[in-house]
Design brief:
Layout lengths: L3 E8 L8 H22 L6 E3 L1 H12 L4 H11 L4 H15 L6 E11 L6 H9 L4 E5 L4 H15 L17 E14 L10 E6 L5 E12 L1 E5 L4 E7 L5 E8 L5 H8 L15 E7 L1 E8 L1 H9 L20 E14 L3 E5 L18 E4 L4 E12 L4 E12 L4
Parallel strand pairs: 1-5, 1-13, 3-4, 11-15
Antiparallel strand pairs: 2-17, 3-5, 5-14, 6-7, 7-11, 8-9, 9-10, 10-16, 12-13, 13-14, 16-17
Helix pairs in contact: 1-4, 1-8, 2-3, 2-4
Length: 405
């Protein structure tokens, strides 16, 4: 019998209450998954932009319906030791991200199922209760109509930034399920750039070649550090809600992006903002917009998830009330980000704790000029312990800004 297909779609746009340990496990798992997926996607030339949490979340939903070697592959790739930990952790993540004030941030899941089919009770319960996912029946045989239904939901959740994600040719009579995650973010800077200060300036694609960009400029107090291990500067630009911030990792050398990427393989991205201080920083940052569409079948196979695409051994037997074998046919993600003087808008999907100081400190003024390729993260910060003032950060979006294609 030819295995029937599940179509996983990821879109970009940050209960049974999980314990702090479960939440931290999911955050750390997403952080490691971010590094691993970035290392694969960064092999291509040009800009990179994606939402690791969107991919991680929808795979965590699929994790709930997996068995056998497929379950083990997802355990290893998601970096979460058990499907119930993933479910409870994401329930807390969704609760936090969807209740952030002062900015627009939302993350949603959805399952489309072929008319006449039913989800197994346990799978339906956990995806509804923990992942807050609604289920909607559609007729995949009418592929044009089904694609329009799905794309309408995606457009609504991403404020029309992501369009035509699903193609009619992606759907057919063998399609049984479409699993979706959409995340959307729009936030103003805590300290906006003055548009009158924006000027044309060179951005160096490499040591010799440059292009002209519109460079914004701002002087303010920011969390900052010079990381000698990475041979890079790290800057945190907070949004109007300090629970969310953009992290820019800028190599000290114009052609240092490749070596920086290699070094980041050994860094916990969820803790990249540790050991920063807050001097006056003169920031020069280009205005930019990136739109990407990524076929994730190959990258996920590189990360050890070839099992979910394997027609002989894929095991999603805990999803449907049917003995039919299911296998993933396609994984795709579209992403969008725009950064300007007001702030940033991203679609595809901080609690910043400042230590009290007993005495006023003065630091020399720093300069942070983004005039060559760098790495950008948008993170949501979570307080893990008020007693020890520990926090971890969920990576909502990640990318590489190069201005080359």
């Amino acid at each position: 019998m030819t295995p029937l297909r599940i179509l996983f779609i990821f879109v970009l746009l940050h209960l049974t209450m999980a314990s702090k340990e479960e939440l931290q496990t999911v955050i750390q798992g997403n952080g490691l998954f971010t590094k691993q997926l970035y290392s694969v996607l960064a092999k291509k030339e040009g800009n990179v932009f994606f939402s690791p949490i969107s991919v991680h979340a929808v795979l965590s939903m699929a994790y709930q319906g997996a068995g056998g070697s497929t379950y083990e592959a997802l355990t290893n790739s998601l970096n979460v030791p058990d499907h119930s930990i993933a479910a409870k952790g994401y329930n807390s993540v969704l609760g936090q991200l969807n209740n952030v004030s002062g900015i627009e941030l939302s993350m949603a899941n959805k399952i489309y199922i072929k008319e006449g089919y039913e989800l197994q009770s346990e799978f339906q319960e956990v995806t509804a209760k923990q992942f807050l996912s609604a289920v909607e029946p559609v007729n995949f045989n009418e592929s044009e109509k089904a694609a329009k239904t799905i794309n309408t939901w995606v457009e609504e959740k991403t404020k029309e930034k992501i369009k035509d994600l699903v193609k009619a040719e992606d759907l057919n009579e063998d399609t049984r399920l479409v699993l979706l995650n959409a995340i959307y973010f729009k936030g103003n800077w805590a300290s906006k750039f003055d548009a009158a200060e924006t000027r044309p300036q060179k951005f160096y694609i490499n040591n010799n070649d440059s292009i002209e960009v519109q460079m914004m400029k701002k002087k303010s107090k920011y969390n900052y550090k010079e990381d000698r291990t990475l041979d890079a500067q790290v800057l945190e630009l907070p949004y109007s809600n300090p629970d969310i911030s953009m992290i820019i990792i800028l190599p000290n050398k114009r052609d240092g992006i490749v070596k920086l990427e290699e070094k980041l393989a050994n860094v916990d991205l969820t803790k990249i903002t540790e050991n920063m201080y807050k001097p006056e920083v003169i920031v020069s940052l280009p205005k930019f917009k990136i739109e990407t569409e990524i076929d994730l079948n190959g990258p996920l196979q590189e990360l050890g998830l070839g099992e979910i695409f394997n027609q002989k051994s894929a095991d999603f037997s805990k999803m449907l009330k049917t003995p039919e074998q299911l296998v993933v046919s396609k994984v795709v993600q579209k992403a969008f980000i725009e950064v300007n003087e007001e702030g940033a808008e991203a679609a595809a999907a901080t609690n910043i704790l400042l230590l009290a100081r007993t005495m006023k400190q003065h630091w020399p003024e720093e300069e942070f000029i983004v005039d060559h390729p760098c790495i950008i993260l948008i993170q949501a910060h979570t307080n893990l312990s008020t007693k020890i003032r520990a926090r971890a950060s969920n990576v909502l979006f990640a990318g590489k800004l190069t201005f080359s294609v």
